[in-house]
């Protein structure tokens, strides 16, 4: 029987690339995101390869998360792989100038959204005594950078939650992996800079950034390890990047 993966944030960037990559491995997919038309487009692209179910909801709205996940038909309920990927940065400002709505969005989506989704899915994994959770953190969760304050805090929280999950779920044979990318060119910076495409492009100027496919390949590798092996915590950087702040631009 095919495995089932649930991917949050499948409408763009890393999540979309992961969906395309896992479909190649014959994994049935529950694709999540707010933009319904993008979910439908991706479903049409992949549904000749594998079974696809789409769920449109905002991860930061606990009731919406609950009702979307509780609506899964029985044949979709045995989720093998949970890919907690939905998230974004909103703004890049010194702490004293921070926009409260941006702070709320980052904590609500990147931290609480991941928790709401996980809380709903983990009990069934525990009952089956198997499963694999992959949380997308960031180099920003390992090292804080100037003006990154609250985004970095949200990703540091993802690191702590990932480590805690690995401890708490260990008795049930559930694997937990944290993936922490550096600069990946997606819609991430366009969202961070509220649609300013020029400013977003400059983030990746003079380097070969990671692509969403690089992260998707890594996730496919992580999921393909034998049952006695878990890749616990992975930092992936473009070759031009040495740390959150050291980037060698040409
Ligand atoms: P994108 O902006 O391309 O994708 C973000 C995804 O998250 C979209 O599919 C979006 O879907 C979804 N999302 C955002 N907010 C919500 C919400 N409230 N409810 C449900 N879904 C939501 O960025 P990336 O692909 O780069 O980002 C994916 C993850 O990778 C994030 O967690 C990000 O922090 C992390 N990351 C990114 C890096 C980078 O350099 N790009 C580096 C390190 C980590 P929709 O809008 O349709 O809801
Ligand atoms: C995304 C990487 O360095 O742009 O998490 O914050 S960075």
UniProtKB/TrEMBL annotation:
<comment type="similarity">
    <text>Belongs to the short-chain dehydrogenases/reductases (SDR) family.</text>
</comment>
<dbReference type="InterPro" id="IPR002347">
    <property type="entry name" value="SDR_fam"/>
</dbReference>
<keyword id="KW-0560">Oxidoreductase</keyword>
<dbReference type="InterPro" id="IPR020904">
    <property type="entry name" value="Sc_DH/Rdtase_CS"/>
</dbReference>
<dbReference type="InterPro" id="IPR036291">
    <property type="entry name" value="NAD(P)-bd_dom_sf"/>
</dbReference>
<protein>
    <submittedName>
        <fullName>SDR family NAD(P)-dependent oxidoreductase</fullName>
    </submittedName>
</protein>
<dbReference type="Pfam" id="PF00106">
    <property type="entry name" value="adh_short"/>
</dbReference>
<dbReference type="GO" id="GO:0016616">
    <property type="term" value="F:oxidoreductase activity, acting on the CH-OH group of donors, NAD or NADP as acceptor"/>
</dbReference>
């Amino acid at each position: 029987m095919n495995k089932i993966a649930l991917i949050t944030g499948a409408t763009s960037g890393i999540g979309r690339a992961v969906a395309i990559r896992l479909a190649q491995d014959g994994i049935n997919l529950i694709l999540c995101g707010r933009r319904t038309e993008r979910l439908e487009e991706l479903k049409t692209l992949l549904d000749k390869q594998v079974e696809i179910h789409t769920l449109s909801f905002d991860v930061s709205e606990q009731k919406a998360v609950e009702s979307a996940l509780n609506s899964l038909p029985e044949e979709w309920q045995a989720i093998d792989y949970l890919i907690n990927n939905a998230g974004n940065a909103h703004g890049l400002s010194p702490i004293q100038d921070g926009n409260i709505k941006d702070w709320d969005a980052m904590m609500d989506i990147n931290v609480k959204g991941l928790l709401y989704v996980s809380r709903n899915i983990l009990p069934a994994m525990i009952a089956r005594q198997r499963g694999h959770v992959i949380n997308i953190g960031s180099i920003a969760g390992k090292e804080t950078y100037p003006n990154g304050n609250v985004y970095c805090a949200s990703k540091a929280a993802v690191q702590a939650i990932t480590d805690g999950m690995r401890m708490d779920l260990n008795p049930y044979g559930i694997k937990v992996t944290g993936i922490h990318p550096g600069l990946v060119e997606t819609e991430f910076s366009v969202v961070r800079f509220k649609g300013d495409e020029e400013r977003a492009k400059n983030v990746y100027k003079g380097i070969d950034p990671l692509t969403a496919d690089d992260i998707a390949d890594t996730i496919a590798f992580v999921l393909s390890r034998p049952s006695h092996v878990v890749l616990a915590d992975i930092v992936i950087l473009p070759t031009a990047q040495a740390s959150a702040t050291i980037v060698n631009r040409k």
